[in-house]
Design goal:
The chain has 515 residues and is an alpha/beta fold. It is 36% helix and 14% strand. Helix 2 packs across helix 4, helix 4 crosses helix 14 and helix 12 packs across helix 14. Keywords: Disulfide bond, Isomerase, Redox-active center.
Length: 515
Amino acid sequence: MYSKNSAVLQVDAKNYNKLISKSNQVSIVEFYAPWCGHCQNLKPKYEKAAKSLKDLAQVAAVDCDNEENKPLCGSLGIKGFPTLKIVKPSKKPGKPIIEDYQGQREAANIIEAVKGAIPNNVKRVTDKILSEWLKNENSTAKAIFFSDKGPTSAMTKVLANEFLGQINVAQIRDKEQEASKMFGVLEYPTIVVLPGGTQEPVVYDGAFTKAAMKDFLSQHASPSAAQKIKEKVKEKAQKVMGTDDKAEPVKAAEEDASSFSSVSSSQQASEASSAAASATEETLSDDSQPTESPEPAVTPEAKPIAVPTPPESIPSLKGREDLQAKCLGEKTSTCVLALLPAAAEGSQGGLEGSSGTALASLAEIAEKHRERKGNLFPFFSVPTSNALSGILRESLKLDSDQEIELVAVNGRRGWFRRYEGGQFDSLSVETWIDNIRFGEGSKGRLPESLLISEQTTSEQADGETTASEEPNTTSEEPSTPSEEPSAPSEEPSAPSEEPSAPSEEPSAAPTHGEL
């Protein structure tokens, strides 16, 4: 389906391990069948993504209709076409992390997901820790990327991954003046390599393309480190081949091929049975509803079905004061807010559509970090009944209250970041969350009118006492105590109109660059 000149890498069972499993690059792999209408529809979008991700990741495809590839597709659990999987290198060579891509099948969404999956092995070094970092592992080559960009670029991450174990890669910002002065850096970006030991630093003076930079870094890479990795992999493979029964992998491959043949034939027969199906619809033989990747009619052995326990729902901030205290104070840290649509108000049971998907994704991500005992900022849902919900939408220029909105806010630093992924599946939302965690992506300035100071909060708490002691200066005659109205109803404090200025100015919104 993909030609030799295509940007998509055609992979088969013979070279899958070498090109994908053992690669130190992130890969996205499409498992397809040439007769699949959905696969044909995805082709131009997938090729567009491949061109955009050139030099950053591998965009590959496997023809599961080919008899030689059926054992591979069966072993990976392919049950419908097209199936997309993201393959990331792990700490164990040859044993990558494989995740199903469940986002929207558009080029932009695929590109964003793959970039977000690139491991970050770049050390962020400041003036404060520079000396310590230079002393550590002095015999190993080091490469320093001096940059005027905040986030670490995808290209820098890719180069660090390709030389992992051979060169320690760091990024130093232009604001770290002592480091720039130490190495005589006057412009950005600049790459400086420290070969190790007592050798003098080498400044890169070539083009900022992957091929040129990779060639430069390879001249200073430690060959011994790479050789050790290869020897370990080879030694482990020899042990496995020497102890395992040779008949077992052959038998397993035959079973995978047999099982997958049933899967492939079932889906192909399903598609062929409906003459009315269009090029963008696939129809199952026992169901008239179209599906993107139809489940084949294969009857597995009877096994008990494990019913997963749904994660705990994220807490809801129904009151104005709760939202201000937790997320919109001068000293509050990062919060992720799910601004619910008006249709969710008073709904019984779980929410449906994008709102339900978004809340489920946030709950799943929060649960994952709790299990890992990770330190993740809190997630909250905000119903339209909360008076600040509409104010937030208007102040941040969000859409109307007919759709759910995800927005991260940081009162202490005065910034916000809106989720613009379109799809609310857990992979897409978690990629956005990770970008916030690592300081990547652009941020907007949080209007000061939304923030409330601690002093204002205290005044609101005892506003009635303060108001009763305040004289009525507009009255011509003294009012009796019984006639004096309560101050909170006539002169309410207005934190949203005259808030205290944030404790620090938010930094300018960073933008992505190649370096």
